[in-house]
Amino acid sequence: MKYIYGNWKENNTLRDVNLFISEFKKQKMPNDVCFGLAVPYLYLQKMNKKLQKKCEIGVQNVSFSEKGEFTGEISAKMLCDFNCSFSLVGHSERRQKFKETNEEINQKMLRCFDFGIMPILCVGETKEEKDENKTKKVLKMQLTKCLKDIPTSKKFMVAYEPVWAIGTGVTPSPKDVEENVSYIKKVLSENIKVSGICVLYGGSVNPQNAKELLNGKSVDGALVGGASLNAKKFVDIGKNLQNIRR
Ligand code: PGA
C-alpha cells in the first residue's frame, strides 16, 4: 500500500473546493493507494461528507493545548467531533513562519494522540544544514524532540520534507530520498522504539517525478503540496505509483 497525502495550505476558495470535489469524483482511483487531503479547517466537514469513501480528510495544524485562552486556535478535541482523521504537525512553514518549536510540536503530537487524530510529523533539513552535511543530525534531533514521551502503541506517520525542496521544483535524488527515509526508520526503531511507522517523502512531488522519487524500498508514499490542488494531478501521482514492485 502507498499513501498519497495532499496539503492545500492557504489555498482554495469555496468555489475552487466545489470544482475540486466534482473533478475528484470523476477520477478512477488506483488500487493499493490510500489518499488523504489536509484542507483548511473551514472545508473539513464538507470534504468529509463529499469524499469520505475515496479520501481521508484532515487538517494542516492543531493546537498544542486542549482548550483555553488561545485565541484563534483549534484543538484536537474540537477536531475529533468532525471526524478529522489526521493532522499535519510541524510542517516547515509552521516552524519557519510561525516559529513553532520542537517542544510545541511534541505537545501537538500528544494532543492528537489524546483525541484519536493521527498526526503526520514533518521533519527535514534546510539548505544550509544540507550543505554542512548535517541532514542526519537534524533529522535525529527533530525526531527525538518531537516524539518525546509519546505512547508507543499509537499510530502516526512521518513526512521527510527537505525544506529546500518545498515549492521549489528542486528535489533530492531518489537515492538521497531512500537514504534519508530509511535513516528516519532506523531512528524510529532504535531511539524511539516504535515500529511499523509509514514514512512519506514531500517536496515538489508531481505526476512526472513521483514514480522515480518514491521508488525506494523504505518510502511509503508522498506528501504533496502544489500538485494536490488539482484533482487529476493528485490522483495521477497515485496512479503512477501503482506499478512499483516491492
Ligand atoms: P510542494 O509542497 O509539493 O508544493 O513542494 C510540499 C509540502 O509543503 O508539503
Q: Main attributes?
A:
eight-stranded parallel β-sheet; TIM Barrel; binds 2-phosphoglycolic acid; alpha/beta; 246 residues; 39% helix; globular
How does this model look, in words?
The chain starts with a strand and ends in a 5-residue tail after the last helix. The chain is 39% helix and 15% strand. The model has no long low-confidence stretch (mean pLDDT 96). The protein is built from ten helices and eight strands. The protein has a single domain, classed as Aldolase class I (TIM Barrel). It is of the alpha/beta class and 246 residues long. It has an eight-stranded parallel β-sheet with strand order 3-2-1-8-7-6-5-4. It has helices at residues 14-26, 44-51, 76-80, 92-97, 102-114, 127-131, 135-146, 174-192, 210-213, 231-241, and strands at residues 2-7, 33-38, 56-58, 86-89, 118-123, 157-160, 198-202, 221-224. Residues 7, 161, 166-167, 202-205, 223-226 line the site of 2-phosphoglycolic acid. 2-phosphoglycolic acid binds next to strand 8.
> What does the main sheet amount to?
8 strands, parallel
Tally the structural domains: 1
Catalogue the ligands.
2-phosphoglycolic acid
Uncertain spans, ≥5 residues at pLDDT below 50? none
